[in-house]
Write a structure and sequence with these properties.
Layout (H helix, E strand, L loop, with lengths): L4 H6 L3 H7 L11 H20 L3 E3 L28 E7 L17 E7 L6 H15 L7 E5 L7 H6 L4 H4 E3 L2 H7 L5 E2 L9 E9 L17 E11 L5 E5 H9 L5 H16 L7 H5 L1
Parallel strand pairs: 1-2, 4-5
Antiparallel strand pairs: 2-3, 3-9, 4-7, 6-7, 7-8, 8-9
Helix pairs in contact: 3-8
InterPro entries: TAT_signal
Amino acid sequence: MTMDRREVIKLGTAATLGAVLPSVARATPQNAAFEASYDDVLQRLRTGLNAQGLQEAAPLSIVSGDPAYNGGLRHDFDQSALPQGGFVIQPLARVEDIGERDRADVLPIFHEVGCHPPDDLDKAAQTRMLIRLLTEEFGLDPARLAFVSVPASEEMRPVLDEVGLPFSEKVILRDAEEAFEARDGSGYFFPNPDGEDFFVTMGVYYRVGETDEPAPSAYPASANWTELGEIVIAGETAPLGVSLGAERLALAVSGQFPTWDERLGQLFAQVESDAGGSGEPAGVAAFR
């Protein structure tokens, strides 16, 4: 049975999830080398974002309280709960990712660093802020950065040209109608994949493979690229902002990444901690 992203994340019971998703391996001990690198990246993120005037907000529970959506697990950081001038390091788990678990950069639990820059930062300024953070704070190679978006991002051409990432070389533009229908974030992102509200984004990618292509040659990008995050450049659903996957940033920095099974135990522990005595949501059974 083939199901798209919107169908999978709406499944709400363990029985239904188990019927459409393959079985997964048991949790194994954590990858100590990666976790040490990851902890260092988190600390440097906090330092770098604080230096930009952003204050850390407390994350929400990984248990969303909505059993009919993504098996009751939190799918994205809550745009409405994050104040302007704040950032959050939000643990997330996506049932849809179980089918992608063989990908090197997909994990059962991951942390999205969502940022709503101060009011005085416009989309150009927040883009410069993110690029400085990646290249100066973390030392990422600008030659390995690239972007995926839609024609609406054309207004960002002067900004990228100015910071030495030529728009004509570094941005792959998707067909707007195709990206709108896909609702997958690189061009348009729908906080509720079955809803109507969206914002326009530029997906931020980093080359991790041994290739010299300046940007992905097609979308979806090959395994030579990992999506680090997104820049919100337009839309009514959320204020301007940026988001980064903390684990993928650690991959870009260190070249290390855990296996799916090495992170399963962390998912179960996070759910147990956040659920308290209310019991784990149905979606967790699919990961077991």
